[in-house]
Amino acid sequence: MTDKLRVLISALRERRDIWFPLGLWVLMTAAAAITGPFRTYDCLAPLPRTFYWGFVVAVSIVVSIAHLRCVNKYSGAARIMSWAPFAFGFAAFLQALNTAVFDSWSGWPDYFWLVGVVFAISMLTEFAAALLKPESKSQPVPQQDPFATLMERLPLEKRGRLIRIEAQDHYLSIVTSAGESLILMRLSDAEALLAGAEGLRVHRSHWVMQSEVQQHIRRKRRDFLVMSDGAVVPVSRGSRDKAVAAGLILGRSAA
Q1: Helix/strand/coil for 91
Q2: Domains (range + CATH), the chain
Q3: What is d(CA 186, CA 144) in angstroms, rounded to the nearest whole number?
Q4: Tell me, what's the pLDDT at 230?
Q5: What is the SS3 assignment for 149-207?
Q6: pLDDT tens string 155-171
Q7: Pairwise CA distance, residues 247 & 255, whole Å
Q8: How confident is the model at residue 1 (pLDDT cuts 50, 70, 90)?
Q9: The sheet that has 206-209: what strands, in order across it?
């Protein structure tokens, strides 16, 4: 998967987060405007009824999403009980709106009727959220193979057993058993990606797979590793101790 494709997928997910509430608003507004629930069909003409329900549905979606995000850390009875103050608060908003819109709307009986309606709809919202909730975090999450992630950046014909990585300006030379390929990436990022692999950064420009090291040689008081592809990779003084600990070079002190 290329970087451009990852950016595109991320953008599509962000758009989905925007378009889903918008689509829900359109569908609920249209349904309420056509059917006219709660006496709005008799009390309001089609256009005012559409504006009324468009406003009510928009506010309800916004405050419901905000409430769900606030109670996301809760579960069980505490989560359900959190909808009670929400129902009283949102019913107070609807009571004020209906009192201003409808001449016959007023009094405590209408308010408590709204509380019951809002709480019932809130329970439906909670039920829908539970159905859409992802799998429990307690379940083991499969770990992505770091080699597979790196190989996705290579041409198909260059994918193989990873041998070594060499930094070349802003690019990395990825050497595998199938050949060599250049990718636009920093060595530090590749090193982080391969943190779970049995590899080692032996130089500021070189990372090697430990299993691909064939021989350690020493020239002019400097250490080198001969790799399975025949390349001779230098070991910096700062990385020598790590190479010794990994068993890649002899443990004698640097001369």
Answers
A1: helix
A2: 3-132 (no CATH), 146-245 (2.40.50.1020)
A3: 20
A4: 95
A5: HHHCCCCHHHCCCEEEEEEECCEEEEEECCEEEEEECCHHHHHHHCCCCCEEEEECCEE
A6: 999 999 999 999 998 89
A7: 18
A8: very low
A9: 179-184, 171-176, 162-168, 206-209, 199-203
